[in-house]
Amino acid sequence: MQKDLNTIRNDIQDILYQHQATMIEEASIAEIYRATCYYLRQTIGKNIYDTQKKMIDKKTNIFLSLEYFPGDLLFKHINYMNVSSDIQNALSKEIINLKSLLEEDKSIELGKSYMGIYTDSLMDSFANLKINCIGYGLLYRDGYFKQLVDENGQHEEIDDWWSRGKNWLYKKEYKYSVDIYGQVETKFQDGKYRFNQLNTSKLNIRSYDLPYISKDSEFYLKIRLFDDLNHTNRLLPKSTTQSDREEKLIQRYILVSSSLKDAIREYLTTNEYIGDFSSKFRVLLADSNLLIALPEFMRILLDEYNLEWDEAWEITQNTFTYIKLKEDYLQAEGNLLMKVLPRVWMILDEIHHRYIKKITTNNPNGEIKKESILWDGEVRLINLAKATNTKIDTINPIIAISHRKYLQFANPELFEFINESIKGDLSKDINKIESILDFVDEPDFIEEIGKIKQNHKFKLSQKIFDYYRIKINPYALFDAHIIQIDEKNRQLLETIYIINEYLRLIDNPNIDTIPKVFFIAGKADSNDVVGKLIIKLIYKLSLKINKDLTIKDKLKLFFLDDYALKSIGTLYTGIDLVQSLATPTKEKVNAFKLISMINGSLAIGSKNKYNLDFLDSTKNIIYIFGTEEREVQEIYENRSYNSQEYYYKNIALRKSIDTLNGAYGLFKPDEFKELFDLLIKFNDINLVLKDFEDYRSTRQEIDHHFLNKRKWYSKTISSIALIKEYSSDAVVKSQFDDIF
User: Fold this and answer.
1) For residue 566, what pLDDT is reported?
2) Is the pLDDT of residue 298 over 60?
3) Might you give the EC number(s) for this enzyme (predicted)?
4) C-alpha span between 160 and 75 (Å, rounded)
């Protein structure tokens, strides 16, 4: 920004006069935070405008996603713009600590899954690689939910990010009308059929722009977020009821319809003929659920621009690319589409019949069922993409993260040390990080890596004490498991192992064992009874363990809710081991695993698809245990598993599980009987008991390896080098090259 400190201070003062009518010396931290945001917004807004002008003759990529995870934007912006020290020094007369300003920032979480981290990282790379792109999403004013945890379990409150996060939003004048429900009237007029939607519910959609800035460049992008107070206020949980599924369909439709209308508006500002749209704009869909954009685009061209079917069809075929970020052959419910989007359903039906006619003409003996778009009340979205000849790009790896956000600025000590060691500039070329593999046998390099990790562990230990008033051993094995809390992610397996370790220590407090500190975090869907009960179990177990002075510092357990995570900060920089335990065949991508590993941790994982794929890259830096996917499938098909066999044969396992029914005084009788029944009475569908012993023996191996710090930190060098393959920059360059 190249401004002297007095100018910065005066600019912030002018903003305070304008918005708060106060002096810097008398303003609150919240007021100065807001003024600082607005000060940065001036430069950000100008660079967004200038970027748009520079790209006016370039092809525009439209990127649609239901989730983004921008996070704490003040921290990001001051680092990307290289102004953190300038702002600190400009405000130093008031002894305003930059840390206190950062604590005022509200994390913008327009997502709840790894998809939000992935798409946020892709947008970060689009900006830094100077790829002309507009992101589109929904403005979840209430986020997902703010999580609080106590002895009664998880409580959900509204996430009030809007109170601070809106400082980064630019309100736009563009408004769009979106029609849902109603009926379709068909008329034959002027030699063609015309379709009118009657008795619809009209939604008036507003829009806001959220900036995506680049580091050390003035090439700035944005995501346009659509807002409807009745339908986009919150990110919905996994659908379990008809009303929830209906609401999620409305959200998707708001996104695709508003995005396409906005893109057409942008196109028509410099072009007259809608038929050339695909030569100027490309639409990238980051979720199979968004493939309803295809018939919606046809509807807009047919009904609003009066094109003939064949012309509209050709434009549609040349416009879309489906970015397949995961193996998802998701389907939509036909009855919901008919009810909520009757005109879109008509177009889907027409596409289906034309497609069936085409494939049967080309292959009379072909299997119609397999290729059908509409079948047995379902809409097969993947087949819809095939029917329209939509380009389908399968993205590997399945997860990618921004090295700027999750390494460079999250862990500057590690980043700068590596930069100096390889004599390169990783911020511009992350591929150079591969050079650190040359140091895996260099004692001095390994020692420095260990020092950086240990310093982070000291800081984390202090933050834990500040927050919980509990001392932890900074030399213990720090273990983290952070992902959505549910049956499939098997936090229950880890918890039973921790109970087993605790019972061993109760029996013999002087046992020689590696001290361990477990950190577990994640939200259970608000409608997930079992997930919320697992959170309650972990929390109550932590109270027992952390108050037990007889076991000293050999075992500690913390469940970190939203507020604790915010207070403790970048947990992943201090982690020695990260867990990824999902049941094979039910796996979910664990972004926290990758983030922790590229910050110098090792990993333990079940033999699910993602961990095995990961193993190809990680060699010996991920410990794999448990049942293979093939065997899990056979168990489900043959019903050959009996959890009670494992329960009665393994005394240590049985003792741990019996605590769920009140044994050994850890919990109240029957307090967690539902979890006991899940494992024993209902036969443990996630194979917790089957995998327990292998998990425990693998952890014994980990304990043994952790004693040899030099060898341990040598392995973490390979973990850090993973960012070369899994950085979003690398993914965009290798996977998106033919698109861009």
Assistant:
1) 81
2) yes
3) 2.4.1.1
4) 18
**Omega of the bond prior to 443 within 30 degrees of 0, cis?**
no
Q: Which two tokens stand for residue 13?
A: 């003062």
- Residue identified by tokens 């009926």 is 183
**Which SS3 state, helix, strand or coil, does residue 16 take?**
helix
The single-letter code of the amino acid at 121 is S
Q: Is the pLDDT of residue 328 over 60?
A: no
Beta bridge partners of 202: 179
Q: Taking Cα atoms as reference points, which of 65, 732, 112 lies closest to residue 397?
A: 732
With b for 16 or more beta-carbon neighbours within 10 A and e for fewer, the 503-525 pattern comes to bbbeeeeeeeebbbbbbbbbbbb
pTM over 0.85: yes
List 208's β-bridge partners, or say none.
171, 225
Residue from 653, 664, 652, 667 nearest 541 by CA: 667
CATH entry, 55-72+107-394, from 3.100.10.20, 2.50.20.10, 3.40.50.2000, 3.30.420.10: 3.40.50.2000
Strand boundaries in 572-646, DSSP class E: 577-580, 602-606, 622-625
Question: Using one digit for the tens of pLDDT, what is the confidence trace for 64-95?
Answer: 999 999 999 999 999 999 998 888 888 876 66
Q: Taking residues 553-569, report their average pLDDT.
A: 90
- 356 backbone dihedrals φ, ψ, rounded to 5°: -60, -40
Helices (H), 474-590: 491-507, 529-547, 562-568
Q: Which of 203-207, 250-254, 324-328, 379-383 has the lowest mean pLDDT?
A: 324-328
Spell out the domain ranges in the chain: 55-72+107-394, 421-626+692-726
